Amino acid sequence: MNCDESSSIPDWIIEHPASAAVFEEFGLDTSCGGKSLRYVCRSTDVDLNNVLARLHEVVEADSVASYDHDYREHE
Fold first, then answer.
1. Tally of domains within the chain
2. Which of 6, 18, 23, 37 could form a disulfide with 28 if both were Cys (CB 3.0 to 4.6 A apart)?
3. Does residue 36 sit within a domain?
4. Is residue 1 assigned to a domain?
5. Would you give the distance in Å from CA 67 to the centre of its chain?
6. d(CA 26, CA 46)
7. By residue range, what is the domain housing residue 26?
8. By mean pLDDT, which of 10-14, 18-22, 39-43, 65-69 is the weakest?
9. What's the start-to-end Cα distance of the chain, in Å?
């Protein structure tokens, strides 16, 4: 699953557990009742682009760390 602004916060966390820290950082409720990230940001006056940029940073860093860890295990 590719998460984006139309995905719910729980979907982000299920797909990318490291994203939970980003939602906490921005003060976004992780039990948003299945509302889209876009909706939650708009309703709380949080800049969606800032949240998405931070999410992509965290997800990318997590995937690189996972790849590095997996690679080193098989050396």
1. 1
2. 23
3. yes
4. no
5. 18
6. 7
7. 9-73
8. 65-69
9. 29
Would you state the structure tokens that stand for residue 45, as one six-digit string? 């006056």
Residue 61 lies in a domain: yes
Please tell me the distance from the alpha carbon of residue 7 to that of residue 64, in angstroms, as a whole number.
Answer: 23
Backbone angles phi, psi at 14, to 5 degrees: -65, -45
Residues 18, 54: contact at Cβ < 8 Å? no
Q: Which of 69, 62, 57 is nearest to 26 (CA)?
A: 57
Closest C-alpha to 28, from 7, 15, 70: 7
Cβ-Cβ contacts under 8 Å for 59 (sequence gap 6 or more): 16, 18, 19
* Distinct helix (H) and strand (E) counts, the chain: 4, 0
Considering the domain boundaries, does residue 15 fall inside one? yes
